[in-house]
Amino acid sequence: MIKIGPSLLSADFSKLSEEIKDIEQSGADFLHLDLMDGHFVPNLTFGIPVIEKLRKCSDLPFDAHLMVEHPENYIEGLAKAGVSYVTVHQEACIHLDRVLHQIKEAGMKCGVALNPATPVSSLKNIASFLDMVLIMSVNPGFGGQKFISYTTDKIKEACHMLASAENTHAVVEVDGGINSETAKLAVGAGAVFLVAGSAVFGADDRKTAIAALR
Ligand SMILES: O=C(CO)[C@H](O)[C@H](O)COP(=O)(O)O
Ligand SMILES: [Fe+2]
């Protein structure tokens, strides 16, 4: 069952609650929240105080994508703010196993994101523990970039790795440059959670945009 998660990065930041209500009514399955710290990626977005306020505006599950250094410092706050999925970057975590345990012990589902150049095999030892593998199909930091086509092979590899680890509950998510054409490639490769920023928030009719992705 494919799930569509609009990325708030491409919303109008001057009216976030209206934007979230709009995509909720347009059929979104979850809300993707990009936390950027200006260090791990050269861009800065929002943090936990904003997410706490947004939680009051929506019933959608919150999917936090942490493009930050020291993600361990955010886990407790994200749990209190009502986030469902927390995904950290493999490249940002020296103690990846420890951070993932921290996320689960806080009552949330844990994911690991891989930059385009990072191999799927780097997650082999923790594959059975994961709730999500996030394949980045652009270099992280900005919305509106072009889908990198070789990442579809990584989606297939991630599905294969999870199956080999007998992990039947984890999902593969894809993020970056997803539109109605690239969504077909990602789903064909095995992605189940599709994140789309500009393809949804940039559309005049978000309902049609979400239906086209689905
Ligand atoms: O993590 C991200 C960027 O680092 C965003 O989630 C992603 O880029 C979504 O935007 P778009 O669909 O426009 O590519
Ligand atoms: Fe993201």
From TrEMBL:
The keyword Coiled coil does not apply. It comes from the Bacteria. Its EC number is 5.1.3.1. Binds 1 divalent metal cation per subunit. Belongs to the ribulose-phosphate 3-epimerase family. It comes from Megasphaera paucivorans. It holds the Pfam family Ribul_P_3_epim. This is Ribulose-phosphate 3-epimerase. One of its GO terms (biological process) is pentose-phosphate shunt. The active site is at D34, D175. SUPFAM superfamilies: Ribulose-phoshate binding barrel. GO terms for molecular function: D-ribulose-phosphate 3-epimerase activity; metal ion binding.
